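Lab notebook: predicted structure, single chain.

Context: the supervisor wants predicted structures on file for every construct in the current expression panel, including those that have not yet been purified. This is the next one on the list. No modifications to the sequence; it matches the entry in the shared construct table.
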Amino acid sequence: MAVSLILGAFEPEIFMALDIKFGVSTWLWTSPFGTTLAEPLFAKISSMGYDAVEIAVEDPALIESAKIRELLNRYSLEVIVCGAFGPSRDLTADDRSLRENGLHYIEECLDICVGLGARFFAGPMYAAVGKARMVSPGQRTKEWELAVSNLQKVCRMAEARGLEIALEPLNRFESDLVNTAADAARLIADIDHPAAKMILDGFHMNIEEPSIQNAISAAGKHLIHVQVAENYRGTPGTGQTNWRAWYQGLEAIGYTGTVSIESFTPDNQELAAAVCVWKPLARSQDQFAREGLAFLKQWASGIIPEMNTD
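Prediction complete. Output recorded below exactly as produced.
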């Protein structure tokens, strides 16, 4: 039950603290991420007070797992591994070579997960990001079935390595296949494999979900990771996101994982055309990370701010 605490000119709602950790994506600063960038970036992320770093793997060849794992240990950071699914990595493509390339890339990323000590591999791995078209019902069914069959293969690869996968719904401008938590839950049900789980990204949810709280409920036990940024992909706490609904949704399902800030540098290579971040969204990327974490820690402590409606 909420109680009120007078703070300035309004009365924020005060709840019990969420039992979560905080992470931030390498995409906030750099693209593509590689071993040579790891030490200064990890040192910065650790000094800011983050618990985890979310490594975006655009090019697996740039990742030297042994060296990066040593740096993760040095800076006391947990790790999450996310994929970058450009047009050459598409499990639902008509072109078989693109499907095979997607499977090969996912397998490389699963091996990186093992090498770094990650528990799962996350991303919209069912299709290429930016693949958003009006197609016939028959074509849609064909692509759904391709996603299911290929992700069953991915789940078997993950299971063999002691891993899970976290499937991410995207907004309608970035995907025409999986847009909501309910879509992802249906995909997981069709895959019918215990390694198939879900990640939710607040940016996409602000576009697609009528209710953030109901979307989290739809994800339920499948939810193993959360990404957040504001509705405009900016610093958490500076936009129109309903953080009260986020709190109540995560509390209701007993979520105890990581909440990571994911936004992008304008220099992103693999997904530039899809994410459409053409200019900085804060005075500096360091400010974005520092102020975003301060807001999230206050929010997770149970102090729920009013929505910004200016």
